[in-house]
Amino acid sequence: MMSVETALTTAFMVLVSVVGTAGNALVILAILYKRRLRNIPNYFILDLAVCDLLTVSLSVPLRLVEGFQPASVPCSVVIAVTILFDGLSRINIIFVSIDRLIAVKFPFAYKALMTPATVATFITSGWIIMAIFALLPILGVGLATAEFLRRNQGLCFFSTNLSTAYLLVYLIGFCLLPLVLATPINCFLLKASHRQMRVIHIQQLQLGSTANAHSQNASTLSFGGSHQQGNVQEQSRTFVLKQRRIVRMVITLVSLFIILVLPITIIDLVGAFGVSNVPPLVAKIAVCMIYTNATINVFVYAGFNGEFRRTFREIFRSVKAQVVRLSPCL
Q1: What is the DSSP letter of 175?
Q2: What are phi and psi of 162, to 5 degrees?
Q3: Which of 9, 75, 130, 328 could form a disulfide with 156 if both were Cys (CB 3.0 to 4.6 A apart)?
Q4: Is residue 195 included in any domain, yes or no?
Q5: Which DSSP string do the residues of 187-226 spell out, in sequence order?
Q6: What totals of helices (H) and strands (E) does the chain contain, helices first?
Q7: How many Å apart are CA 201 and CA 305, to the nearest integer?
Q8: CB atoms within 10 A of CB 48
Q9: How far apart are CA 88 and CA 81, in angstroms?
Q10: What is the DSSP code string of 277-318?
């Protein structure tokens, strides 16, 4: 009989799979549907959404099926799929952070540095590297010794099926390193965001001074020059506000990633060194947290990006209109 703990974990995983599939599909559709959303930062968001979609629609169901019917799916396939999409999601978080770092640190060189070709190179390289690495266990490379596999009682976990060397490369190179890189980058972005707020405050004061000058200056030429200066300042302020919203979205995205991914990374890293005294309930919560990470991003985009929200509403209205058209009785 299934325990309450297992039943709750399974129900949560099914919920994550359903919500995550719908949410990430909505993000992908929104970017493909709306031309204004097709820009450099959102290309990385698109790739992240694809990886998260495959995680919740393929990796999670495979893990559930393997848990209930271990012989139905080879463990090496389950592990390979998990490593591939989980690793790609982590790599994409770094790509998103680096993109915003360049935009904030080198704003005038950003368009020259981050071209569509550069983005394609980043994304393609990530897929190639992770695909090769994830396929190694299926090809027999990186597996635990035959003696150890015989003693693992059919358990399909990283620590019971992968060699220590392979597991350490994955955990340090593709799990821990993204966390180490993302943390200082986002600390810098947070500080830059505060600096931008000070810039906006100064510009607002300058615009106020310009408005006062307008009321005192009767000269048409002088008024025209002040008006042009005010327009430039207003455009600069608008640009800074837009960049700040993007930075805030990325900071939230990466912060949630760190919070949700760190526990399972620590558990796996400790387990790789033979220390496996983590309570099963804690391990299950950590697994649920990492899969939740593939589900929540759509809510982050909707919360910080007005264009995403408007596009989501357009898509919902379009789908509703199609349903009503196909089902007149509704």
Answers
A1: I
A2: -110, 150
A3: 75
A4: yes
A5: HHHHHHHHHHHHHHHHHHHHHHHHHHHHHH---HHHHHHH
A6: 14, 0
A7: 22
A8: 26
A9: 11
A10: ---HHHHHHHHHHHHHTTTTHHHHHHHH-HHHHHHHHHHHHH
- pLDDT, one tens digit per residue, over 53-99 is 999 999 999 988 887 877 778 888 888 999 999 999 999 999 998 99
Domain holding 202, by residue range, is: 4-320
In a domain, 215, yes or no: yes
Distance CA 236, CA 200 (A): 9
Which residue reads 């392979």 in tokens?
166
Judge contact between 97 and 182, C-beta under 8 A.
Answer: yes
Contact 142, 148 (CB under 8 A): no
From the centroid of its chain, how far is CA 156?
26
Q: The whole model's pTM is what? A: 0.81
Question: Residue 111 maps to which CATH number?
Answer: 1.20.1070.10
What is the Cα–Cα distance from 269 to 277, expressed in whole angstroms?
A: 13
Q: Which pair of structure tokens corresponds to residue 79?
A: 């592990």
Q: Flag whether 329 is in a domain.
A: no
Q: Classify residue 330: in a domain, yes or no.
A: no
Per-residue pLDDT of 98-125, as tens digits, reads: 998 898 888 889 899 999 999 999 999 9
29, 315 Cβ separation under 8 angstroms: yes
Amino acid at 151: R
Spatial contact of 286 and 230, defined as CB atoms under 8 Å apart: no
Sign of the CA dihedral with 9 first, then 268, 176, and 130 last: negative
